Amino acid sequence: VHRWCEIAAPATPLTRPLIAGLIPAADHFTDPEMRHALAERAALIEQRAEALVERAIAAGEPWLDQLGPPPTDPTSRLQWERAAATAAAYRDRHGITDPTDPFGEPKGGGQWTSRADRQRAQTAVLHARRLAATRLRPPGRHGQQAQPERILDL
Questions:
Q1: Is residue 94 within 8 Å of residue 26, measured between CB atoms?
Q2: What are the contacts of 101-104 at 24+ separation with CB within 8 A?
Q3: How many C-beta atoms surround the C-beta of residue 76 within 10 A?
Q4: Cα-only R_g, the chain
Q5: DSSP, residue by residue, 128-150
Q6: 118-152 pLDDT, tens per residue?
Q7: Which stretches within the chain are classed as H helix?
Q8: Which DSSP symbol is given to 21?
Q9: Range 14-18 contact pairs with CB under 8 angstroms and sequence separation of 24 or more
């Protein structure tokens, strides 16, 4: 069954935008009312993912440790929060309750949608780790602009 699921999964990468980093947007509708309804739902899903990660940060949920500390640079911090929101949306969508592992135990017996979501969440967590490992070096001599510095303690 596992092999069949791999074969049945889409071979080409998605080019559509992803809602909360997970769900392919249904952007092929031409009916204005349907497009509006789908846009509203997409916004609600995004808001929920953002609220889930805000709550997880405030509560100091241990699964966030796997993402590394949030960067202090505002742009990197926003990207880190988006990646964390994808992981939070994955946990919410698939009922993951493991307190320390962002992905928990795989559920659903190999459904390609579940596996695709997990892969997207794993990619987001890796992105968050890379962002957490980058900090701004203080300005150099002669007033040079601060440059990103990689920290290799992953």
A1: no
A2: 101/63, 101/66, 102/63, 102/64, 102/66, 102/67
A3: 19
A4: 18
A5: HHHHHTEEEPPP-GGGPPP-EEE
A6: 999 999 999 999 999 886 444 444 444 444 544 44
A7: 2-8, 32-59, 74-93, 112-132
A8: T
A9: 18/120
Quote the tokens at residue 4: 């069949």
Distance CA 146, CA 141 (A): 10
Report d(CA 47, CA 72) in Å as an integer.
23
pLDDT score, position 152: 41
- Pair type for strands 18-19 and 23-24: antiparallel
- 3-state class of 38 per DSSP? helix
The pairing of beta strand 134-136 with beta strand 148-150: antiparallel
Per DSSP, helices labelled H in 61-111 are 74-93
- Tens of pLDDT, residue by residue over 27-77, are 888 899 999 999 999 999 999 999 999 999 999 999 999 999 999 999 999
Query: Which residue pairs from 142-148 have beta carbons closer than 8 angstroms and sit at least 24 positions apart in sequence?
Result: none
Which residue type occupies 41?
R
Query: Whose structure tokens read 């405030």?
Result: 58
- Overall pTM surpassing 0.90 (yes/no): no
